[in-house]
Specification:
With 300 residues, the chain is an alpha/beta fold. The strands form 3 sheets. An 8-stranded mixed β-sheet has the order 1-13-12-2-3-7-6-11, with helices on both faces. Helix 2 crosses helix 4. The longest helix is centred in the first third of the chain and has 18 residues. The two termini are 23 Å apart.
């Protein structure tokens, strides 16, 4: 398997990736207003949220060019809160606290004022994932699933007037209504045990509703007759409980390998090419190689 890393701005280097050469794209781009990488014109520090969304749409339009017609695009994106003079997130606040103790540089240092725009007020949740998903739909993408990445170990927050943020979004997007998707590759364990002696019914435990509360009851599988469940497990759900994983060689935004592992297994076959246009620490590329896929990454 081969892994290539193209150094530079994704808006320039995507031109070096051949048209329809990628089966599956898995990426997590810079979140809006969160981090300063010290590069002029970098993505994520646009003056307005509308400009950030427009930039993302343009980048992913080029991703659509290099993606095969039956390919899939998995996009991990988090949200931000509007604050006085710019954007603030829970990660920002924690990094500011850390930097103030160590003397390190602050995230977003030198980025200047970011205009909230879009009618947003201080403390508003900006709804960046939703705005981006709708913009991508308008640009021609099929939005096939909104997967919730639930974090059992979210970053602590000091807020006392709202719940702690413990999830991000992973959007499954495609070019066409029909595409390659291997449901068997990411099946989950069946939640209930099949009871072949009970006329095609699942057994389930006390406390579940079946018209009346029973200590142990049966639930007819309406519409399927006596069809048996898939022995490989149930279809993957769209809530993924995956703990974050620290990586000392990279910044705090690194996503855990299990996320690209599921996306790559569902969206490609061994020997296919995987793209991450915002490669970061290279997690997607590493997992692609482990799964027997070629990989191309782009990173500043």
């Amino acid at each position: 398997m081969t892994v290539r890393i193209l150094e530079g701005d994704v808006r320039a280097r995507l031109a070096d990736v051949p048209e329809q050469s990628v089966q599956c794209c898995v990426t997590s781009p810079p979140y809006y207003g969160l981090r300063d990488y010290g590069v002029t014109g970098q993505i994520g520090l646009e003056p307005t949220l509308a400009e950030y969304i427009a930039t993302m749409v343009a980048v992913f339009r080029d991703v659509r060019r290099v993606l095969r017609d039956d390919g899939t695009f998995w996009l991990n994106i988090g949200d931000s809160y509007a604050a006085n003079g710019g954007v603030a997130t829970s990660e920002d606040r924690n990094k500011y606290r850390s930097a103030s103790l160590t003397g390190g540089s602050l995230p977003g240092a030198g980025r200047g004022r970011i205009d909230r725009g879009a009618g947003l007020k201080p403390k508003d949740l900006m709804m960046v994932p939703a705005r981006l998903a709708l913009a991508l739909q308008d640009d021609g993408w099929y939005l096939r699933s909104d997967i919730i990445w639930h974090k059992p170990n979210p970053m602590p927050e000091s807020v006392t007037d709202r719940p702690t943020s413990a999830h991000e979004h992973i959007f499954l997007l495609t070019k066409q209504p029909r595409y390659y998707y291997d449901a068997d590759a990411i099946r989950e364990a069946n939640a209930r045990e099949w009871d072949p002696t009970n006329n095609g019914a699942f057994t389930h435990q006390s406390g579940e509703y079946d018209g009346k509360i029973l200590g142990r009851a049966t639930m007819p599988h309406s519409g399927l007759g006596n069809a048996h469940p898939n022995p490989a497990g149930r279809n993957c759900r769209n809530v993924w409980s995956i703990a974050t994983m620290p990586y000392k060689e990279a910044h705090f935004a690194t996503f855990p390998p299990e996320i690209p592992r599921r996306c790559i297994k569902a969206g490609s076959k061994p020997g296919d090419t995987i793209l991450d246009p915002f490669a970061g620490a290279g997690t997607t590329l590493l997992v692609a190689d482990q799964l027997g896929r070629d990989a191309v990454g782009i990173e500043l």
